[in-house]
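Session log. Operator J.P. requested a structure for one protein chain; no other inputs attached. Running the standard single-chain path with token output.
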Amino acid sequence: MNSAATGDVDVVDQAALSAALSRSTLVELGRTLYNGMPSSPNHPGFKMALMRRHGDAVRADGSSAANEIIVTGGHVGTHVDALAHVSYEGCLHGGVDAARAQTGGRFSSLGADEVPPMLGRGLFFDIATARDTDVLPGGYGVTADDLSSILDTAGIEPRAGDVAVVRTGWGRYWDDPERYAGHASGVPGVSLDAAEWLVAHGFRAVGTDTTACEQLAPGAGHSLLPVHKVLLVDAGIHILEHLALEDLAATGIVEFSFVMAPLRIVGATGSPIRPLAVVVG
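Structure written below.
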């Protein structure tokens, strides 16, 4: 796409943009939000109820309105982890003192309001398909070799600022909350080895179709989450969880345009998101 710079503003070639959009398909990567949906045991769940129904109040012209109240944790459904979410030895990313930052009931730095919207290249690591299975076994650790081999096969080099989207297939269990939580079975996810590979290649965000992004051993639950420490605290890389990746897997693509924006909730540790893959062709 061509653009001409005018001062600090890029003037986009609208014809080229329209042509590119006409060849593109938007693929949803986010889950719908509803009462009873799966949720991590560490976070309050999602609740919605109508507070006013049609007919409760009727205006003189016969019109009526309805509205609802929504209560949810910041890490419920498809969401992004802000850098305030995890600390190590009392510090957040960049050495920020966690106790001081959280004084007053919200984070004064590194909260969800500081998570930038993302528009850039996404790389799809469909590990389940690469392993010739619908769903990786519980407790499987996605390795650096798993990630690099997919790019090698596709002839793609990772670039700083890419977003890694990792499919384990575990999202197929979404409609069975107990199985999806996977406490007894364990849950597949990113291993420490893979996390270090992602850091080394400069990814800005990493997401999976599971509740915690990382490898969870059978029976261990969320007792230790070393990948969260490496990504959020050490490297400042955002984590996306509860992605819906089956439709993206059906496209067979590896490279796509990734779009995501968080809610600008001041001082929150996470935010719901509606991520999209823009697939051309």
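Operator note: Residues 1-9 have pLDDT under 50 and may be disordered.
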